[in-house]
């Protein structure tokens, strides 16, 4: 457990599982592509069931600009800094996917009412690194903040990483060695015990900005590789081409055990999960371990509909893997005690594109005997499909939001643009496995003061299983 002489976070992942229950969460809210000409904002949500404001947005921090497209977030310090008593987890890093601004939000002074600390303007990143479109933010044991980028300032594909000073939050430069880059960028996870970092690919920023087109995929504007980096030398040593089964590899997760030389990556378009691992020779390889079959359909943009795996998580004890199928509409729980042979132990539908009564007709389904019913929680029919997920430290509660990215939301779930997204809570059976919707919990972002908004990633003030890395 954390102590007064230690830094932020927890000594081990198993210690983190004994941490306090979450009482508030931070959720970025996006207005880009909704027709509302307002800035994105950071919402603070009360998730304490004993609170009179349970399931309510209790604070909103608007950004100073419009059309940023807030997306993912990270911390200035996490469990990687546990041994440094001079560090505090008190700043939330909010990169903007479209504008390339980076917002640093003070969550430490008043956790229930965060305030702006600093704005890193795009020009600072452009001039000092030649990179743009920041995505994933992780803190480092050095005290620096590292952020992956998806492109160059012109919107072309270019995978790289930038470093911010952990005190001033000035752009220090790029992380990778001079001349090093990969075709596309997106997520990353580092593991110093094995001197490795693994990064993933989405696509060309200026191409995916407004929506998905099959022609762009066929023209090579989307990725299908994961990249292995030498952590100390900061060079890419391997690029593992996952092929057609690994189209658009997005979220990547090493096992939380810092000695484990393996992890998982979810591939969106092909709807498969790959396990990557260190071989006996000392290099890295990948194998497909979960396959979500596409459904043959009519009344949709393509004759086959993929599940579209958009987010994956591992429980802190590395026992369960969770992921969301944004198009099919389900969240799945797998027992990965044997990482090479995951076993499906839980599944729940919370929306999606194949619902009963919907415009899409399913003509062949290798998994389901009947189409799922629309989910209604507290009188609200859930729009969209399950997207970002976040697990409580003890593994018993899974939070889910339904917005993927405003340009794709507008294309695939236009009703969510009009109604706003939601945040739900899924109860988890941590003994035998199993998922069920908590019908007491609903945060309806369709009722926000300035109009319906798109809510994205969930963060806890004390850290969580997708932001903390142990060394």
Automatic annotation (TrEMBL):
Q: Does the keyword field hold Cell cycle? A: no
This chain belongs to the protein called Methanethiol oxidase
- Identify the EC number(s): 1.8.3.4
The entry's family comment says: Belongs to the selenium-binding protein family.
GO MF terms listed in the record are:
methanethiol oxidase activity; selenium binding
Q: What does this protein do?
A: Catalyzes the oxidation of methanethiol, an organosulfur compound known to be produced in substantial amounts by gut bacteria. Selenium-binding protein which may be involved in the sensing of reactive xenobiotics in the cytoplasm. May be involved in intra-Golgi protein transport.
Task: For this UniProt record, give its keywords in alphabetical order, as a comma-separated list.
Answer: Acetylation, Cytoplasm, Membrane, Nucleus, Oxidoreductase, Protein transport, Selenium, Transport
**Do you know which SUPFAM superfamilies this protein is assigned to?**
3-carboxy-cis,cis-mucoante lactonizing enzyme (SSF75011)
Q: Which reaction does it catalyse?
A: methanethiol + O2 + H2O = hydrogen sulfide + formaldehyde + H2O2 + H(+)
* Cellular component terms per the entry's GO annotation: cytosol; membrane; nucleus
The protein's organism comes out as Petromyzon marinus
Any Pfam family from its record, for instance, is SBP56
Q: Where in the cell is it found?
A: Nucleus; Cytoplasm, Cytosol; Membrane
Q: Name one GO biological process term.
A: protein transport
Membrane topology, from the record: Peripheral membrane protein
Pathways per UniProt: Organosulfur degradation
Top-rank taxon of the source lineage equals Eukaryota
């Amino acid at each position: 457990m954390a102590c007064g002489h230690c830094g932020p976070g927890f000594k081990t992942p198993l210690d983190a599982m004994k941490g306090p229950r979450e009482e508030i969460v931070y959720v970025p809210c996006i207005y880009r592509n909704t027709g509302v000409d307002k800035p994105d904002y950071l919402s603070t949500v009360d998730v304490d069931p004993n609170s009179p404001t349970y399931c309510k947005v209790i604070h909103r921090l608007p950004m100073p600009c419009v059309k940023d497209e807030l997306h993912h977030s990270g911390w200035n310090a996490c469990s990687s800094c546990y041994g440094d008593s001079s560090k505090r987890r008190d700043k939330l890093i909010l990169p903007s996917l479209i504008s390339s601004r980076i917002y640093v939000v003070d969550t430490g002074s008043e956790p229930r009412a965060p305030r702006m600390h600093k704005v890193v303007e795009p020009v600072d990143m452009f001039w000092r690194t030649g990179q743009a479109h920041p995505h994933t933010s992780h803190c480092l044991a050095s005290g620096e903040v590292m952020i992956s980028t998806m492109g160059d300032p012109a919107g072309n594909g270019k995978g790289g990483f930038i470093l911010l000073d952990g005190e001033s939050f000035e752009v220090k430069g790029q992380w990778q060695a001079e001349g090093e880059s990969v075709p596309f960028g997106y997520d990353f996870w580092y593991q110093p015990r094995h001197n490795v970092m693994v990064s993933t690919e989405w696509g060309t920023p200026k191409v995916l900005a407004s929506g998905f087109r099959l022609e762009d995929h066929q023209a090579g504007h989307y990725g299908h590789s994961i990249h292995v980096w030498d952590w100390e030398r900061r060079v890419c040593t391997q690029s593992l081409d996952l092929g057609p089964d690994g189209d658009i590899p997005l979220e990547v997760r090493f096992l939380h055990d810092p000695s484990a030389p393996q992890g998982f990556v979810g591939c969106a378009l092909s709807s498969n999960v790959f396990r990557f691992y260190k071989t006996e020779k000392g290099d890295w390889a990948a194998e497909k371990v979960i396959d979500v079959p596409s459904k043959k359909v009519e009344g949709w943009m393509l004759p086959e509909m993929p599940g579209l795996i958009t987010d994956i998580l591992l429980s802190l004890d590395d026992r369960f893997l969770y992921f969301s199928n944004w198009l099919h509409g389900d969240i799945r729980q797998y027992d990965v005690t044997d990482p090479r042979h995951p076993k499906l132990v839980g599944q729940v539908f919370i929306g999606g594109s194949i619902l009963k009564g919907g415009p899409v007709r399913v003509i062949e389904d290798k998994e389901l005997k009947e189409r799922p019913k629309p989910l209604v929680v507290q009188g609200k029919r859930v729009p969209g499909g399950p997207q970002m997920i976040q697990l409580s430290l003890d593994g018993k509660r899974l939070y889910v939001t339904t917005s993927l990215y405003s340009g794709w939301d507008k294309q695939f779930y236009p009703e969510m643009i009009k109604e706003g997204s939601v945040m739900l809570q899924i109860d988890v059976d941590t003994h035998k496995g199993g998922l069920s919707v908590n019908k007491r919990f609903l945060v309806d972002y369709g009722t926000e003061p300035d109009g319906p908004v798109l809510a994205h990633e969930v963060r806890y003030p004390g850290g969580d299983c997708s932001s903390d890395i142990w060394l």
